[in-house]
Amino acid sequence: MMMMQSAATCSSSSFSRRRAFFMKVYDDNKRQRQRRDANVASSSNATTASSSESSSSSDVDVVAEDQQQQQQKSVAREIEFMVEMRCGKCVEKVERSVLSLPGVIQVSASLGTNTVRVLATSSVKTVEEKIASTGYKTRLIGQGNVELFNERLAERLGMDLRTLRQSLAAVAEFKGEAYQHKSCKGVVRFVQVNEETATFEADVLGLEKGKKYKLRVRMYGDTTRGVESCGEVYTTTKENEKQEEILGELCAVQAMEDGSIKASLQLPKTFFVWDIIGRALCIEEVVVGNEEEEDKGLRVAAVLARSAGVGENLKKVCQCDGTVIWESSPDDFTPQIVAEKDSKGGGSPLFEKGKVSVKRM
Q: What's the confidence (pLDDT) of residue 358?
């Protein structure tokens, strides 16, 4: 009995230290943001709506040379991976390797759950590739520290706590021609780090070297006709004001030598991840010329779906077919158009001509 009490006390103490650590990070990020806002306010006493609109795209232009500076300005957030570790030496090797990355603040690996939690400003892909370089299979399973979000905030937003904590991260996936994404393949991720801070990062391949592309959140998640059916750029009405604020203009990115675009930005205080779930993330080529030619460049759209928070997705085996999580890949499921059924064959109404079926290849 005493041993059980001792273990419970130890566990409680560990939880308290961990919570205190993340609250300190939260406070530090908040102070940094307040100082930055104060500097911006003092250096620019008045800006007109037109000048704000014209400068917004240039302020968020991203080119390859700026990646290191972006990472230094990024806010630390928690990310979680499932990693195929088999012993204590595996745990030590992974922790040591990830800690060597610039931007990594803390690493905690668990052999019991085969998970690695990382607090970092580094991109998800950078951390994932570092883990993979140690020789272990890995998959991202969660982003965002749910412990920072409480009942009070949920009540204020008009939702229950469980729904709020399931809405702290979002992802849009581009999977090439099979999904009507043309040559685009990659992901764009959003994370609500805390109540005042949201971040996003993009890593997409298959674009044309040297061309510029705009990343936008649009109002609707209807991608049946691509960008055309996704509506206007996402806007919201400021609190206690009638004026609308355009939040969907994320950034303009120039494709690098290999045809990839990469971006990592901290979003405005009024941008909340739970407000964009179900909308669409669009990648739109910037075409130089008159307005009639704007639709001629590459324009693709993907729905922004919920992504699990840290500690909320610990399953190792897919219940559909028993596939182990680190043995699966984003290419496992591909859409196929079901062929027209013979008129005498009958069959399920789900398998009608032109319906899309998704199957494991």
A: 43
